[in-house]
Design a protein that fits this description.
This protein is α+β, with helices and mostly antiparallel strands. The protein has helices spanning 10-14, 31-41, 46-49, 51-55, 66-71, 73-80; strands at 3-5, 20-23, 27-28, 81-83, 86-98, 108-121, 124-135, 143-153, 169-170. Strands 2, 3, 5, 6, 7 and 8 form a six-stranded antiparallel beta sheet that branches. A three-stranded mixed beta sheet has the order 4-1-9.
Length: 171
């Protein structure tokens, strides 16, 4: 399910209910993704990149880096929340991040998203989105993070704070 709002300022009214915005599709984590992430970050710990050794390790297989699961946040958010009439969206940072369970290579992941807060911040709207990355078949998530995004309206759509916020629709 995708939640869609007409403009960034609509997040202000929507946040009052701290709504569940939906879930992404399932994505399978491959060893190739993990290896490429290891190369990009210089984190070649054996639990990530050595299937033979990891097979006898604590998880029984290689696992995705925690930061790899977190790096999927942008893709998950874009799939779950569509904000129209945005001039620019900026990753502003993270408030909290935890990696409660491993994400084994070959597992399928998906994310759930909740709009925790939204507030006007200059000409933008600052949204705090709680992202929970689920591992298929696991009772515990691979990642839980509060992601902070600044949505700057397209100048053609009007001011940062409207006189009457429009309601959100779910598509």
């Amino acid at each position: 399910m995708t939640t869609r709002v007409e403009r960034p300022t609509d997040l202000l009214a929507l946040a009052a209910d701290a709504p569940d915005l939906g879930r992404s599709r399932w994505r399978r984590i491959s060893q190739q993704q993990v290896d490429l992430f290891a190369d990009a970050t210089d984190d070649h710990q054996w639990i990530h990149v050595d299937p033979q050794r990891a097979g006898t390790g604590p998880f029984g297989t290689t696992i995705a880096h925690g930061y790899l699961t977190l790096s999927l946040a942008s893709a998950f958010i874009a799939e779950i929340l569509q904000v129209d009439n945005v001039g620019m969206a900026v990753n502003y940072g993270l408030n909290k991040v935890r990696f409660p369970a491993p994400a084994p290579v070959g597992a399928r992941l998906r994310a759930g998203l909740r709009l925790t807060t939204a507030q006007a911040r200059g000409e933008a709207v600052e949204a705090v989105l709680t992202l929970t990355v689920e591992v298929e078949g696991s009772d515990r998530p691979a990642c839980v993070a509060e992601v902070v995004v600044l949505y700057r309206p397209d100048p053609a759509t009007g001011p940062a704070i409207p006189t009457a916020p429009a309601a959100a629709s779910r598509a």
